[in-house]
Amino acid sequence: MNIFVCIKQVPSTNKVQVDEKTGVLKRDGVAGKMNPYDLYALETALRLQEQHGGTVTVGTMGPPQAQAVIREAYRMGADTGYVFSDRRLGGADVLATSYTLSQAIRSVGDFDLILCGKQTTDGDTAQVGPAIAEHLGIPHAAWVTQITVAGDGVDCRQQLQDVIETVHMPFPCLVTVEQEICMPRLPSLKAARETDKREIHIQGLDSFLDTDENHYGLAGSPTQVERIFPPEHDTQHEVWQGPDSADRLHGQLKKWKFI
């Protein structure tokens, strides 16, 4: 069984500057990490590989520094990694991002199963995974807490709002997973040494079947950001000392109508 896992490098801090003109995060010079939800998708893929054989390929869309999350995936056990990096892909919304990833996956090869984390911590839309499947024309299931290979496909248990639903999907298909599905393993030092020089494949728009620039990046994004700004932080504080501090606190809480 050949599995493709979508991963993403996200900022490791919430103090990220925003381009006020484009509404895009300024990622240059910002420390990054693998999107936490993608760790569960990768661990799920590795466990399925251990049970049923096959390969695990990971791919991310982002700037060249996104190679760091591919290295992390290698240390966890992934076989092959791709970074889809091209300035023409920058500034993409959900529609353009999902279309880009669908084209990227097609350019890499054919896969039985595509796995994604349920959402990213920098976007939180939880829409990219299902949208990739729609672009590829394959069945998909979201909010999955358990996957079992069954014949020519997989049985998935979905944690919906009010019910738990089990569905069967034939290969090829796409699944987005919840945190409850498994506990990710720690990266291996031995694997780090063995994969330190393993190739990371870099591909751009020209490697896709559809090379029309109007379908990617800002040009292919129908969602337009009207205004975006960082949250304001109120750092004002008072220091109270002395025997009347408790009475002052009680009075302040009462003034604020907390009590």
Give an overview in words.
It is a single chain. The chain is built from 6 helices and 11 strands. Helix 2 (67-76) crosses helix 5 (189-195) and helix 3 (94-108) crosses helix 4. The chain has 259 residues and is of the alpha/beta class. Helices cover 27% and strands 24% of the residues. The chain has a single domain, classed as Rossmann fold (3-Layer(aba) Sandwich).
Q: Briefly, what is this?
A:
This protein is α/β, with parallel strands linked by helices and 259 residues long. The protein is 27% helix and 24% strand.
In the CATH scheme, the class would be: Alpha Beta
Structural class: alpha/beta
Number of helices: 6
Proportion in helices: 25-40%
E-strand count: 11
Question: Which keywords apply here?
Answer:
259 residues; alpha/beta; Rossmann fold; nine-stranded mixed beta sheet; two-stranded antiparallel ribbon; 11 strands; 27% helix; 24% strand; globular
